[in-house]
Fold this protein.
Amino acid sequence: MFPILAARTLAPLVKEFVIDARPVALKAKAGQFIVLRIDETGERIPLTIAGVDATQGTVRIVFLEVGKSTRKLGTLGAGDSLLDFVGPLGNPSHVEKFGTVVCIGGGVGVPAVLPIAHALKAAGNHVIGITGARRADLLILEDEMRGACHELFVTTDDGSRGDRGLVTDPLRRFIAEGRKIDLVVAVGPAIMMKAVAAATQPHGLKTVVSLNSVMVDGTGMCGGCRVTVGGQTKFVCVDGPEFDAHQVNFDELMMRQRMYRNQEKTALTRYDECRSAQPREEVTSRG
């Protein structure tokens, strides 16, 4: 069992856990992920590692309550435990001194890009951060991103914080101004990463994205996470999760992400209905 040592809400439906998982914390590097299960009947949930403390043996994860399994995960808190916490999985980010690196995080992609920004800064790069969300209350980990970057630009769709617009707007501005950019790293919704790739490709700017395809076992055996990169089939869990953004077939990725949307919606509705039908003391108790 893997105890949850701390839990907090970062934004509506966005939670952060600190997990006692020393074997993972001792080996994890920026860009890698874990797969967890709440209990024996639970679904495997892949989540990018948002940070580790090797001394304390802890791993930080951040998740959005978007389906039944993550909604159930969100009912847990400090003092509860997870049955499985497997990792680190996937290939770590390639970190070296590139020069100037732009790290872009959209929504819950920010926790995933945060350790990458830290690692790139520690390697001697000048790190420019861009974070974005639909509105101010959905922005997360802004102060931590500011500490991981030399410069940070914040955007919101409605202009309620930072600049009004998308994360690609500051990026396009940097390019138009002729700023020297040696690498762009983007993590977030597929549509956002596709837009980042479209902004950088005409200028030949090396761009890396971390993909969030449908995943089951995290070992490459099931094939559920397959994506097309450069015309070839790749498996996100073992070949990635990071790929050359200009080679990714984002349209196929987004289509595959929508494949089980109806089933996921039905499962979440049933779960919420079952919880609503339970007596309040049973819903709020810790087993």
